[in-house]
Amino acid sequence: MKVDIEEISSTKRSLRIELPPQSLLEKLEVAYLHLGKKARLPGFRPGKIPRDVLRSRFKEQAKHEAFQELVPESYSQALKEANLDPVSEPRLDEVVCEEGKPFSYRATFDVKPVLRLSNYTGVEVHKEKIEATDPEVDRALEYLRERAAEYVPMDGWPALQEDLLVMDYEGFAGGKPLKGVSGQNASILLGAHQFIPEFEAQLHGLKKGEIKEFSLEFPTDYGRRELAGKRVLFRVTVKEVKKKQLPPLDNDFARSAGECENIHEFREKVKQDLRTHKEREQVGRLKGQILEKLRAANPFDPPESLVDAEVEAILADLRRDVGGHRATPIESEEEATRTKAKELALRRVQNSLLLEAVAKQEGLVVSEEALHNEVESTAVALNQKPEAFRELLQREGRIETIRMQVLERKALDLLYERANVVEGVNLVIPA
User: Fold this and answer.
1) Which among 252, 346, 400, 424 is least buried, having the fewest CB atoms inside 10 angstroms?
2) SS3 per-residue string spanning 115-127
3) 162 CB-near residues (< 8 Å, 6+ apart)
4) Which residues 6+ apart lie within 8 Å of 68 measured at CB?
């Protein structure tokens, strides 16, 4: 086998691969043998079709089968000989697949750029003094009171904003019940936007035991296409109206919510928790600044295929987050979203490759124990059994992705540990 390497760019390579004519002939013979066993032609018994007839009738099919066998074998061997590790599927062209001629083709693919970083330690970043103010503590305590709030049934009271209604409801169109537009003992918190605003507005002022009928038109961009723009008659029966009651900010609350002896001790605990949270956030920002400076000091173009894959992953996450709030995206919005996604994807891929380079230069590795712990913690976060989750990752070939994520975290931690973290605001404005 003859292999010629062409360096198209820092992230793109081509391999020109050539095999002797005999390689193709051998694969064609095997293909004709398979075809002869399963082919059915009038006038011939199965398995008894002459070779010259097979050649005339199934030549292209045999060449296709031979091609499908030769390319993976030769491409894999060529990559080993060239010591290349593609990050994209190859694009094939200049294919020659003819009897009597050398079998040849060109495979073009993306590779990771070779990065040799310098001056990646001692990066100067500026941190601010972390404080938790009394107003912030007050807001945190109010948030905890809200979480501990109870909804108490109130007979004879009208439903108002922030009240919880328990109700039965059913939707009708043309006098017939609509499938999937009904609920029994459904809870709705007024003001939480669980239903469309026009629906919630009709519930204000209702009391326990009241029945109300009203019609409304669903928005034209409503997520469920069968309801978008349709006018629906609703019948609602109120079963409970519940008012929110917050626990008093006293020693009992301190014991139940914070396992503290008194409210003063609880305030100090909340203040320390706020400081810890702010410190973690600041470390995250500082690590982001280190990566930003590392990108600026080491500019490079990442492989297009990695950026494109990251763009699609970002857009998929965005679609899952948005859900069905809009039936069809506006074209201009979709274009702007894709542009922003590409900018983010570019930074993410550059960061990943830079951290991989740091890890390589520093000789960082991920132990099997660290990988096991990461898989286990991820499984717990996803509410899955660790062993089953690990088997899933291995089946889908994603276990090395987890290993790389841990390795990148180790590299980023190292950069932060060796950074020059200065307290105070940086007043120097870069030119």
Assistant:
1) 424
2) CCCCCCCCCEEEE
3) 189, 190, 191, 244
4) none
Contact predicate 147/139, CB 8 Å: no
Q: What is the CATH number of the domain that holds 223?
A: 3.10.50.40
Whether residue 378 lies inside any domain: the answer is no
What Cα–Cα distance (Å) separates residue 289 from each residue in 127, 286, 294, 318? 11, 5, 8, 25
Domain boundaries, position 223 = 150-245
Which residues does 154 contact at the CB level (< 8 Å), separation at least 6? 208, 241, 242, 243
Residue 378, both tokens? 């991820």
Shared-domain flag, residues 46 and 194: no
**For the segment 278-295, what is each residue's pLDDT rounded down to a tens digit?**
999 999 999 999 999 999
Q: How many separate domains does the chain show?
A: 3
Look up the pTM and report it.
0.74
Residues 11 and 106 in one domain: yes
Question: Of 95, 100, 59, 52, which Cα lies nearest the Cα of 74?
Answer: 95
pLDDT band at 430 (very low <50, low <70, confident <90, very high): very low
The pLDDT value recorded for residue 324 is 45
- With contact defined as beta carbons under 8 Å apart, do 14 and 6 qualify? yes
